[in-house]
Specification:
single chain, disordered N terminus, twelve-stranded mixed sheet, 17% helix, alpha+beta, 7 helices, 39% strand
C-alpha cells in the first residue's frame, strides 16, 4: 500500500488491514440510534513494533470530536481529515491548512474508494472501536480509574486479530488499545484529553469559510495545471490522490 490516508495511518495503516473491512454491509445498522458523544480534544500515540518490542515506531495524533463530527490530524502535519455525521450519512473532507483548500468527497467518491461509512464505522471513527465489537469481547471491570472515571477491560478479537482494550465508558474512547499479531503488535495510547487545555485546536467552521473548496471528482481535470500539481503534491495523504496525480 503506497499511499494511505491519515486515518489509515493513524489507526491501522501499520497493521496491514483496512479499517472498514470485517463489518456488515454498509447499510446494516445505519439507522441504529447514535450514542451521544461528548465533546473531546484528545491526543493519542500509535506505536508499532516487532515482538518482542525493542525498536518501536511512534505516531502522535489528535482527535477533535463533537456529537456530529470528528477531525483527525497527525502531529506536525499541515493536513487533517474531517468526518461529519448527517442524518445517517457520513461525509468526508480532506483539509489542507497551509494551502487553504478543502477536498470534498461525495457519496459516489467514497463508494468508489471503498470508504463508505455506516453507523458502525462512524463509531469506529469517533471512538476507535464500535459498540458491536466491544459487545463481542470479554468484559472485566477494573479497580483503577482514569481521572476519576471508571475503566473496563475488554479482551477478544476484532477482525480475527487478538485485541486488548482498556475502555473509558464516560468518554467513549480507549485509554489503551492493543492489537497483537503473531510477529508484531500495535498499541494506541491516550496521552491527554482536555477540551479546555488542548494545545492544538480543531478547525472551526469560520476558518473553513476562507478555504477554497474542490470536488474530488474534478481533480483529474486539474492535472495539467502547474499550480494544481504544486498543491496536489502536498496532498499525498488524501484518499485516491495518487490514483489521479502522477
Amino acid at each position: 500500500m503506497t499511499s494511505i490516508n491519515g486515518y489509515l495511518i493513524i489507526l491501522v495503516g501499520l497493521m496491514g488491514i483496512q479499517p472498514f473491512s470485517g463489518y456488515a454491509d454498509s447499510n446494516v445498522g445505519s439507522n441504529v440510534a447514535q450514542l451521544v458523544l461528548t465533546p473531546l480534544s484528545a491526543q493519542f500515540e500509535t506505536t508499532e513494533c516487532a515482538r518482542p518490542c525493542k525498536k518501536p515506531s511512534n505516531i502522535t495524533w489528535w482527535m477533535w470530536r463533537t456529537p456530529s463530527q470528528v477531525e483527525l490530524k497527525k502531529a506536525n502535519s499541515s493536513n487533517s481529515e474531517l468526518w461529519t455525521w448527517d442524518n445517517g450519512n457520513v461525509n468526508y473532507q480532506f483539509l489542507m491548512h497551509d494551502e487553504k483548500k478543502v477536498i470534498e468527497y461525495s457519496a459516489v467518491d467514497l463508494k468508489m474508494l471503498d470508504m463508505m461509512a455506516d453507523n458502525t464505522k462512524w463509531q469506529a471513527l469517533t471512538s476507535l472501536v464500535s459498540q458491536k465489537d466491544l459487545a463481542s469481547m470479554k468484559k472485566t471491570s477494573l479497580k483503577k480509574q482514569y481521572k476519576g472515571l471508571a475503566l473496563t477491560q475488554y479482551n477478544g478479537k476484532i477482525n480475527g486479530i487478538k485485541t486488548h482494550i482498556v475502555w473509558i465508558a464516560a468518554l467513549q474512547i480507549p485509554l489503551q488499545m492493543t492489537y497483537v499479531y503473531p510477529k508484531h503488535q500495535v498499541t494506541i495510547n491516550l496521552l491527554n484529553q482536555d477540551v479546555l487545555l488542548a494545545v492544538a485546536k480543531a478547525t472551526s467552521e469560520q476558518a473553513l469559510l476562507n478555504y477554497q473548496r474542490i470536488d474530488y471528482a474534478d481533480i483529474g481535470d486539474m492535472e495539467h495545471s502547474a499550480e494544481a500539481k504544486m498543491w496536489l503534491s502536498k496532498a499525498e495523504d488524501a484518499p485516491g490522490i495518487n490514483a489521479h496525480h502522477h
